[in-house]
Every structure is written in C-alpha cells, then in structure tokens.
Specification:
Elements lengths: L1 H16 L9 H17 L4 H10 L11 H15 L4 H13 L11 H12 L3 H14 L23 H7 L4 H4 L3 H24 L1
Helix pairs in contact: 1-3, 2-3, 2-6, 3-5, 3-6, 4-5, 5-6, 6-10, 7-10
Length: 206
C-alpha cells in the first residue's frame, strides 16, 4: 500500500511539473514510458518500484538545449523523493537512472533500473507514436520536415536541428541496436519496422 501511495504522489507531482512541456515530452509521454517499463519489468531484473519512480520523474525539467535536462531532473527528483519518504539508497538508484538515461549523453546506465528506464523511454521515440512525436516536436521548434534539395541526405551532412527527417537517421533508426534489455530489443525491432516502412513510403511521395 505504501508503494502505491508513493507512486500515486509522484504521478501527481509529475503531472504538475510536466504541464508546460511540449506535447512530445508531456505527461502522456511519461505514462506511455511507464507502461513500457511495466512490460519490461515483467521479464527483466530490476526493482519495479524504483524503475517506475524514475520513469515518473525523468522529464520533470526540460531545458531548451535538452543537454542538461536529465541532470537537472535527477537533482530535483532527489528533493521530491526525500519529501516522499524514499530511503537514501533508493533515491541514489532513481537519481542515477534519470541522470544516465539521456540519449544525448550517450551513456549506458550503471543499474538494471537505469537500463529499463532508458529502454522504456527510447521505445516511445520509435514506432507510430515516435513518428507523431518527431513531427510534433519539429512543429513546436519550427523545424522543417526535410531538406527539399536532398531529403535523405545523400550528399550532405545530417542535421536534425534543422530537418526533422534527419532525426530518423541520426537517432531513431539507431535505437534498436542500443537497447539494453532482451525485452526492449524485441519491442524495438517491431517499432523500427514501422519507421522503415514510413520512410519507404515517404520516398515515393516526395
């Protein structure tokens, strides 16, 4: 019962903290990652309470550059967790998982909980929902769909700060191979095929 109360409190806090985030990183994103994490926890080793706590707090701060969002979210999470009566060793595991989950930092998390959080978060970046999020984020940041002169970057350097389509090649299509858990890899394979099929269709349309 105490675990459910703690998670319930963290959900309420996350909903408030995420209210101003862009649609690609809002509370619904967190709840999708939460459900992904629940699936992965069924077959992988990891403390479910700590995994789900990390999921709920992993995006509570989003900076414009996104490079230090995970570090700042981890720092704030420590204060929130202490206020919600988590033990010191639990707080460290959750904080480290949040700090290390970021794609931008390129780290493999040091704990099973961190690996599950990272996989669950990355799953939401691919598949049908991943497609929606790419173009939602691009719209929020005034990023064009693609380079009209070279949409698939055959003769130029990729730049996903400028072109949404480049993000598929710089990040999304690489995620399947970077999954930490066996379950994450299985789920990512299916979702990656959705991206690949989309890109094939797109090539015929543009």
């Amino acid at each position: 019962m105490e675990i459910m109360n703690q998670l319930g409190n963290l959900k309420k806090i996350a909903k408030i903290k995420l209210a101003k985030n862009d649609p690609a990183h809002d509370f619904e994103h967190v709840m999708r990652v939460y459900r992904n994490a629940e699936k992965i926890c069924k077959t992988e080793n990891g403390n479910k309470k700590l995994v789900l706590s990390a999921v709920l707090l992993h995006d509570i701060i989003k900076t414009k550059t996104r490079k230090d969002s995970s570090t700042k979210s981890a720092k704030l999470s420590e204060k929130i967790l202490k206020e919600n009566h988590f033990l010191d060793d639990e707080i460290k595991i959750i904080s480290d998982a949040i700090k290390q989950h970021s794609f931008t930092k390129g780290k493999i998390p040091s704990t099973p909980e961190g690996k599950i959080l990272q996989d669950a978060d990355r799953l939401d970046a691919i598949g049908a929902i991943g497609l929606a999020r790419v173009f939602s984020f691009s719209g929020s940041n005034n990023r064009s769909f693609y380079d009209p002169n070279d949409p698939f970057s055959k003769n130029r350097v990729l730049n996903d700060n400028r072109w949404a389509l480049d993000h598929f090649y710089e990040k999304l299509l690489t995620l399947e191979k970077k999954m930490n858990t066996k379950t994450g890899k299985i789920l990512a394979k299916k979702r990656t095929k959705i991206l690949e099929n989309f890109l094939k269709e797109l090539k015929t349309e543009i």
